[in-house]
Design goal:
By secondary structure, this protein is mainly α. It folds into two domains: 122 residues, no CATH class; 69 residues, no CATH class. It is 71% helix and 0% strand. The protein contains nine helices and no strands. The longest helix has 34 residues. The protein is flat and about 60 Å long. The two termini are 36 Å apart.
C-alpha cells in the first residue's frame, strides 16, 4: 500500500492544492483522449510524475496490484461471445484502451499519495471547498488515507495466519469466505475504536490545520493543471 513518505523531491516541495490541480487535469484529459498516440504521451507523463515524487514504477504497480486483475478482465470479457466464434479480439480493443487509461490515472495518483501528508490533503480540500461540505470532504479524505492502510494490513495478517495454519490447503471458496468474514469483523472493530477515539479526543469539525502557501512554482504547476484540463475540450 502506497503511503506518504517524507522526502525532498520536486513533488514534496509543492503545495497540495497545485498537485490536486494537476491530478484533476490529468484525469480529465486522459479520459477525454482515447487514441493510442495520446496514451503514449500520457504514459510518458505518468512516468515523469512518478519520478518527480520518487516513486519507482514497479512499486506503483505493486501498490495497485489488486486493481490490475479487474482492469485486465474487462477487455477479455468484452471479447467473449455466446456462440461461435466465441472470441472476437476486435471487441476488446476499446475496453483495453479504457482500462489502460484508468491504470495511468491510478499510477499518476501514486505520486500525490507518496508526496502529500493526510493532514495537508485535508487542509487543501477544506480551504478550497467552503463551509460544512469542505469540512466533511476533508475529514473523509483524512480518514481514508489513515484507515485503508490499516484494513489492508489486517487482511495481510489474516492471510499470513491462515498460511501458518495450513489454510492454503483449503478450497479457494473456503479461504475467500474466511478472509472476507474475518476482514469485515476487523473493519467493524476498527470503526468502533475509531469512533471512541474521536470522541475521546473531542473531535472537531474545524481543527487547527497546517499552514499552506503558494509559491511561484505552485502557480506554474496549477496553471499547467488547468491547461491539461482544457485540452479535454479542445
Amino acid at each position: 500500500m502506497l503511503t506518504y513518505e517524507p522526502d525532498d523531491t520536486f513533488a514534496h516541495r509543492l503545495d497540495p492544492r497545485s498537485k490536486l490541480a494537476v491530478q484533476i487535469g490529468f484525469a480529465v484529459t486522459a479520459l477525454a483522449h482515447t487514441t493510442p498516440r495520446a496514451l503514449v504521451v500520457f504514459t510518458a507523463f505518468t512516468i515523469l510524475g512518478l519520478a518527480a515524487a520518487g516513486v519507482p514504477l514497479w512499486r506503483a504497480l505493486y501498490g495497485y496490484r489488486f486493481a490490475l486483475p479487474i482492469l485486465a478482465a474487462a477487455p477479455v470479457i468484452s471479447m467473449l461471445t455466446i456462440g461461435t466464434p466465441w472470441l472476437v479480439p476486435a471487441d476488446g480493443v476499446d475496453p483495453a484502451l479504457a482500462s489502460y487509461r484508468v491504470l495511468l490515472i491510478l499510477l499518476f495518483s501514486a505520486a500525490y499519495v507518496r508526496s502529500t501528508p493526510a493532514r495537508d490533503s485535508r487542509a487543501a480540500i477544506q480551504r478550497t471547498v467552503p463551509g460544512k461540505p469542505g469540512q466533511l470532504l476533508g475529514m473523509g479524505v483524512g480518514l481514508v488515507f489513515r484507515f485503508v492502510p490499516l484494513l489492508l494490513a489486517d487482511l495481510r495478517r489474516i492471510r499470513q495466519a491462515m498460511t501458518a495454519r495450513l489454510g492454503s490447503e483449503r478450497s479457494v471458496l473456503d479461504r475467500v469466505n474466511r478472509i472476507g468474514v474475518l476482514g469485515l469483523s476487523r473493519a467493524f472493530t476498527r470503526a468502533d475504536r475509531l469512533s471512541v477515539a474521536l470522541q475521546a479526543r473531542c473531535f472537531s469539525w474545524n481543527p487547527t490545520l497546517p499552514a499552506l502557501s503558494f509559491s511561484k512554482l505552485d502557480w506554474a504547476v496549477c496553471a499547467f493543471g488547468a491547461v491539461l484540463g482544457l485540452t479535454a475540450v479542445l
